[in-house]
Amino acid sequence: MSVMTYLGAIGAAQREAMEADERVIIMGEDVEANVYGTTGGGKSRSSEGDFLQMFGKKRIRNTPISEEGIVGAAAGAAMTGLRPIVDLSYSSFLYMAMDQFVNQVAKNRYMFGGQASMPVVFRSAMFYGLNTGAHHSDRPYPMFMNVPGLKIIAPASPSDAKGLLRAAIDSDDPVLTFEAVLLWGLKEEVDDNEYRIPLGKARTVREGTDVTIVAISGSVPEAILAAQDLEDEGVSVEIIDPRTLVPLDTRAILESTAKTGRLVIAEPAHRTCGAAAEISALVAEEIFDALRAPIVRVTAPDMQIPFSPSLEKQMYPTRATIGDAVRRVLDSAPQRLAAEISR
Amino acid sequence: MNATLPIETLLEMQRRMLRIRRFDERASKMVKRGQIPGTVHTSIGQEAQVVGSCMALGEQDYMSGNHRSHGHPIGKGAPLGPLMAELVGKATGVCKGKGGSLHLADFAVGSLGESGIVGSSIPIATGAALSAEVLGNGRVSLAFFGDGAANQGSLYESMNMAGVWKLPVIFLCENNQYALSTPAHTVTSGVIAERAAGFGMEGVRVEDGQSVLAVYDAVSTAVSRAREGGGPTLVEVITYRYNEHSEGLRLGTDYRDAAERSTWLDRDPIVLFRDHLVSRGVSADTLDALEAEVLAEVDLAVAFTNDSPYPEPSAAFEDLYTDVEVAA
Ligand SMILES: Cc1ncc(C[n+]2csc(CCOP(=O)(O)OP(=O)(O)O)c2C)c(N)n1
Ligand SMILES: [Mg+2]
Question: Which domains are delineated in chain A?
């Protein structure tokens, strides 16, 4: 074990995979110079762990700024024997390649009757909450959840980042990973050995009995803080981090919600058709009878992201807004309502 | 052609280049002190290319830009106060604090918006040229983009449409020879200006992009062609950015050679043009006074910014639709 940041864990997973399998290559803008910090040991070319030194230009490939071409070329390479990791840096840049994602990456295996496999990972980071303005702050993972054929992960801790990325690289299907930049600096003890966390398995972040919070990506640390506040108020919160959004660990969500009878879902994406909307629908369809209160979503509003710090800070779920949502859910529990009415 | 330019026009060129330099120097400081949230991309070193292009346009003409975003509206004549207030996120910002550095836009001077997404605003300038052509209002349009953006498909889709429809648009490639850490020649096949030939349009390469007059001449020719119905032009200007890709960014890897950088520092467009103006008979006093005026303008812009309030939180929920309210 050693202490790693989330970003360091991503770098470690990439290095392990590059060392283990020659078919793994990394391509993207500015990856040679390690601009985003996952293709190098230190910051300098001569420092130990520099990917270009270790793996050479063939496998660490600087691309032009041509996202549509990059994504499509990675797909073509994956169909013919490579296992590319594509660093798209900002999640907002995925839109440039929407056609390739939706019409090629996601559909080829299916359309061609299973002849193609698509072992490619697309990494990108969501720079929200950092006053980057509307073009760089997107959290677009729900759009991609709506595209059958793509697997989607959104790890929220360094250990999960390392293990899930290794599993993603192993996958013979295309995997998109969405990292919240706000998580990049998180540190914890991470296993130095190779390990994988299977896609599609949620993590129970903490156990509790009164209410379930399903938290996604950058909302996980906020949910943990909210749960600590609520504990002081005598409320026992269970937190589930799905970690993989497609395929979703529906069982973990349903079991926890069935146990607590109350569900709050927190995520930084927009409200309409978000992951929270999908999870709400799932729970309402499957275990409506187990619910003791309406489901509450805590999300970004259906609004673009403003630049000014005084405006942006209100846009995403926080410790406070998640805590309030839990209090609301508890207040509206039927038995308490009934008790209040009979009093 | 430039021999015929009145001295006032030349002085205005120098004024605008100085505005960009001093504004960006101040913005850089403010980023490092945490007074501007996020980061900014300066046009320091590239002022000649920006101002030569903008001055070849009329006030009514359109322009779209990219992440290296302050020089474009300043070059087009936008007042500095609301630009600086936007960088800080104040309510008096040119976009009410919603846009920030990356998304400056001042429609009053034809600035249709800077873009944080590389290559994304080139079609917008093309569309502005389309409206000018359909409406017959005689305006032309110019898209600023970098050597990095020259590898985005949006450029070639735009060039093709503009070529086939003979749109009054100038595709202005600011070739500062790097896209972030990536040298242009390592990711660019062939010569950017020569790509124009494939679309049946004129392509010109301004080798001396540190000369405001050389840029002005090339873009003026393109603007005349556009206004006379001759269609689009691709202009590639060779220049150099003096600062890091963005302010505060620390890259350990030396992707730019120190000797190369110092060669370009020796060709500072503002110093070069000052010398030119002196050779044209402008007194040092006049030029010093101009410099002082610009510094005072930047000070005023900062004071305006500091005196301005931040937007009310509710302002985040304005301006999305024309007639639909969105709940917080
Ligand atoms: C679609 C897209 N891809 C990548 C980026 C990240 N990025 C921002 S600026 C930049 C380099 C742009 O280079 P160039 O077009 O030459 O402009 P310069 O910065 O040199 O002025 C990159 C890669 C982006 N903003 N948008
Ligand atoms: Mg460039």
Answer: 2-190 (3.40.50.970), 203-333 (3.40.50.920)
